[in-house]
Specification:
- The chain is of the alpha/beta class.
- The protein folds into two domains: 176 residues, Rossmann fold (3-Layer(aba) Sandwich), CATH 3.40.50.360; 68 residues, Alpha-Beta Plaits, CATH 3.30.70.20.
- It is built from seven helices and twelve strands.
- Bound molecules: flavin mononucleotide (FMN).
Length: 259
């Protein structure tokens, strides 16, 4: 059983690869928000979490889901596979703590470095094309190795990139991120550019956008936005902006350039 979250598609790609290779069920965490989160593991079934890193921590939607998660049946192998633009900090330790509260022990952790999707700060942009290609090629290779470890249920494996001063980034910086930067308040649409195609509303993983074909998007401002920037990245006319911070920046989602 594989639980996953993905905004711009990097993590969906990895989760799908893994599910195909292991022949295991994929469960998309945003679809679970209103549902009973009790699952039964079959004998010998692995328990996997495939997640992007948000602010050097697990995404908020994932942490909320885990608070409700009940796993029944024998848990003999549990792992996490992260995707990140460059570093995960102490995301594994935070996830492991959340899981322990639900009596789930994490055995191994992996991370893939994937194209950058966060563009919400002035100094952050998508990767240049060459870097995006290089990251994708390395991720393909790394993922094959990780899948082998997971197939063989290798415990105690930590193949992650924590980056510098992980406690600082996952601690105070991650806390600031959650409090001040995970918000839909700055999102707005440039009316002259918007063609009312409805794509932004369709792709939002948490249904935070009132819109759809024939309508300009309106963000709900109800605390569900994850600032995953999926709406921004998918807009075919770069009509969505985040304050002034995304002007003239690039767009990215997995498979956009069909490379
Ligand atoms: C809100 C947000 C926060 C992010 N924080 C980090 C981070 O702390 N470290 C990092 O390396 N990448 C970070 N990224 C980049 C993503 O982790 C990375 O692009 C990931 O592969 C996106 O997965 P997805 O395409 O499945 O949504 C962040 C992206 C977003 C949208």
């Amino acid at each position: 059983m594989i639980f996953y979250f993905s905004g711009t598609g990097n993590t969906r790609w990895a989760a799908q690869r893994l599910a195909d290779r292991l022949d295991e069920q994929l469960i998309y965490i945003p679809e679970m928000t209103e549902r009973d989160c009790r699952f039964i593991l079959e004998k010998g079934e692995r328990l996997g979490f495939v997640l992007p890193v948000h602010g050097w921590r697990p995404p908020q939607i994932v942490r909320k889901f885990i608070q409700k998660l009940v796993i029944e049946g024998a848990m003999d192998y549990t792992y996490v596979l992260w995707t990140a633009g460059d570093s995960i900090g102490k995301a594994t330790e935070i996830l492991s703590g959340d899981l322990r509260k639900r009596e789930i022990e994490l055995h191994s952790a992996f991370s893939l470095i994937m194209p950058e999707s966060y563009v919400g700060l002035p100094f952050m942009d998508v990767d240049p094309q060459e870097k995006e290609i290089a990251k994708r090629q390395k991720a393909e290779k790394d993922l094959s190795g990780f899948i082998k470890d997971i197939e063989e249920r290798k415990k105690g494996v930590v193949r992650t990139v924590k980056g510098p001063i992980p406690s600082f980034f996952s601690g105070p910086v991650g806390g600031f991120f959650v409090r001040h930067l995970i918000t839909d308040k700055p999102f707005h649409v440039e009316r002259k550019k918007c063609v009312k195609c409805g794509i932004c509303a369709d792709v939002c993983p948490v249904h935070d956008i009132i819109g759809g074909l024939g309508k300009e998007p309106m963000w709900k401002h109800n605390g569900t936005c994850l600032s995953c920037f999926t709406c921004y990245h998918h807009c075919p006319h770069h009509a969505i902006e985040y304050g002034n911070r995304t002007r003239k920046k690039g767009q990215y989602f997995f498979g956009r350039n069909h490379r």
